[in-house]
Write a structure and sequence with these properties.
- The protein is mainly alpha-helical and 211 residues long.
- Among the domains are: 4-102, no CATH class; 111-158, no CATH class.
- Helix content is 64%, strand content 7%.
- The protein contains 9 helices and 3 strands; from the N terminus they run ββααβααααααα.
- A 3-stranded mixed beta sheet has the order 1-2-3.
- α6 (131-144) crosses α7 (147-158).
- The longest helix is centred in the last third of the chain and has 33 residues, at 178-210.
- It is flat, with a radius of gyration of 22 Å.
- The protein starts with a strand and ends with a helix.
Length: 211
Amino acid sequence: MKKTLDINIRGTVFHIDEDAYEKLNKYLNEISRHFKSKKGHEDIINDIENRIVELFQQKLTDKKQVINLVDVEEVIGIMGHPSDFDQDSEEEANLYSDTKKKGPKRLFRDIENRTIGGVCSGLGAYFNVDMLWFRIAFIVSIFIGGAGALVYLVLWIITPPAITVSERLEMQGDPVTISNIEKAFKEEMSELKDKLDDLTEQAKQTFKKKH
């Protein structure tokens, strides 16, 4: 009979057998070593662990309450190893193209592209339609019968916002793998740097005009 341990991942407790724990522990240590020297490593690891929690929860049922070695191996197969994409730039570009294959989407509010609550931008991402059409539809429905405002409010309340990198990947239908999480985080950091550079340049131009 295998020994069963209790582990806590991002505030969620799982029962896991000893062999599965050893495999998972080695995997998490591998991830930690890979990202520890990278900027924003804590956020990346948090997103990876949150995804592992989601996958483990899908493995459990009323009759199955213990994570086993097969479960851990399947989760690792989905998430991938850091070494799988830690290649030179050309190989990384090819891998990125492969990992961008679309999968099932989840409906979120896209708060990064919102005008009010991110409902229209979220619907646009989910249905792969320009968010402008949803905005027009809601505005027209408000003037015609007023139902649009109520529908928008309900969707705002029941639809969760896409806050983490994992949630934004799911919103776009991109696989939530270690590779995609890291690349999405790098893209966000690059966009943030560009915005800061633009603000700095605007501040310099304003200062020059005043002097």
